[in-house]
Every structure is written in C-alpha cells, then in structure tokens.
Amino acid sequence: MPAPNTPPSEEPVRPRVPLAIEDWLTVIIMALLALITFANVLVRYFTDVSFAWTEEVSVFLMILLALVAGSAAVARNRHIRIDYFAGSGSPQRQRALAKFGAAAVALLFALMTVLSARVLMDDIKWGETSPGIGVPQWWYTMWLPIFCAAITLRAVGLWLRGGRAAADSADLPTSPEVLDEERAP
After folding, report:
1. Do the domain assignments include residue 137?
2. Angstrom distance (rounded) from CA 84 to CA 60
C-alpha cells in the first residue's frame, strides 16, 4: 500500500534491497520477545524463580525492533511527520518536502552511525559488561551502527527516488482510482 502522502499520480517504486528483510527481522524479533517472555512467565509460575537474563535481552530486542521498524518506515516513506504540512500543497511541494525529510533522516542516522561506532569501539577497548548478566556490552552495541547505517541507506534511497515510497509487493495498483480507494478511511 502506498504511503499516505504520495500523490495519486505517483506510485511506489521497487527498491533494490527488498523490504522483506526488515519484515522478516520484525517477525523474528517479535517471536523471540514472545518466547522469552512466555518462558519467564512459565518459570515464575511453576517455580517462583525468575530468569534474570530475560529483562536485559528483552530490552535489547525492543531497541533492535525499533531500529528495524524505523528502517522499513523510512523506505516506505511512512516515518513520523506532520501530515498537515507534508501532505498539503502541490505534488512538487510534497516531493520537495519528502526529499528534504529523507535528506534530514539520512544526515541524522549517518551521524548516529559514526557516534554509535565510537561507542562500540569504547565498549570493546574498555571491556564493558552488561549490568544484568555481565556479558560483553559490545554484544548489544554492535547492532546500533549496523542498523543506523541501514536506516541511512534507506533514507538515501528514498531521497534518490525523489521521495517516492518503496513498493511492498508486485501487486501494485496501476490506476489513480485504485490508489484513491485504498486511501479512503
């Protein structure tokens, strides 16, 4: 389904890197979160003991989930914005705002990639361990620069597509009437 702000004359385009990557990672992370939480509930119920590691791992997985979902949202041009401004005006204005938004997101996440890589290097250099279960902290922080870089690349792709959303499937609607019907509340 196209992004809400995409003018009817512009259909989403197929990205070079399939969006199924983010979709499957989301499914896997959600399944892991559910399994960990369910296992902890069962153990607590039957033994009055808790798995100490579940909270730390669950927090890490939720952060990872937010980054993966952010990458998919940027590629689909569904990231957070003020629709009053982004969706009003001519199609040229909407494209210009979408390109500006994509450039701003790319710049922000490129900076986050660099800074989180520095944090990762510090964690490795100083041998930081996690507060809950004492594993090396870099096991968690190594994913931050990777997914920040992925979001940066998705934002650059959105900018290169002129602010046009990435397509989800091969069954894209081809006429403006079908697009308008999908947007109807």
Report:
1. yes
2. 34
